[in-house]
Amino acid sequence: MSVNQNQMFPNVPPLLIKGVQEFNNQSYFDCHETLETLWGTQNGPEKLLTQAIIQFAVAYYHWQRSNFQGAERLFKRGLAKIEQAKIDQSASAAHPIDIHDLVDQIVSDMPMVTAHKTLTEFPVIRFL
Q1: One-character DSSP codes across 78-114
Q2: 32, 38, 71, 120: which has the highest count of C-beta atoms within 10 A?
Q3: How many CB atoms lie within 10 A of CB 89?
Q4: Helix crossing, 14-24 with 44-64: angle to 10°?
Q5: Could you tell me the maximum CA-CA distance found in the chain, to the nearest angstrom?
Q6: Each residue of 27-37: pLDDT tens digit?
Q7: What is the distance between the alpha carbons of residues 120 and 128, in angstroms, rounded to a whole number?
Q8: Count of CB atoms within 10 A of residue 101's CB?
C-alpha cells in the first residue's frame, strides 16, 4: 500500500494502514507491534477485528519459524475473535477490510499448518 491508500481511506487510522502493509509484506512481528498500539485505543467490534489480525500475524510469524502448534492455536483464537465480533462486509468504516476474504485465506491455510507443511504463498489483507 502506498500513500494513495491513505488518501483512498481518509477515515482509516494510519496505524491500521501501516499494520496491513506490514502484514502484506510478511513483516508479521512489525505488524503485531503496530496494530497492538492501535488496538489499545479501540472499542467494540473494531477492537476485536484488530486483535484478530494481530493473532493472525503472530500465527504466521510462528509458522515461518516452524512453530506449527503455536500457529494453529493463534489462528483459532483469531477466528474466534472474528466470530465474537460478528463482523461482516458492512463493518464500520473504521475497518474497511475484506474480512471474509481474509478468513477464507486463513481457513484454506489451516490444513497446511495442521500437517506441519511449509507455506509457499502468504495471505494478503485487502480493503473493500
Answers
A1: HHHHHHHHT--TT--TT--B-HHHHHHHHHHHHHHHH
A2: 71
A3: 11
A4: 20
A5: 41
A6: 999 999 999 99
A7: 25
A8: 15
Q: Look up residue 42 and give its three cell numbers.
A: 479501540
Q: Which position has the higher pLDDT, 6 or 63?
A: 63
Q: What are the sequence ranges of the domains in the chain?
A: 13-114
Give the 3-state secondary structure of residue 62: helix
What is the average pLDDT score of the chain? 87
CATH architecture of the domain covering 13-114:
Orthogonal Bundle (1.10)
DSSP state of 10: T
Looking up cell 507443511, which residue turns up? Answer: 117
C-alpha cell at 2: 502506498
Q: What's the pLDDT at 1? A: 45
Measured in Å, how far apart are the chain's first and last C-alpha atoms?
Answer: 13
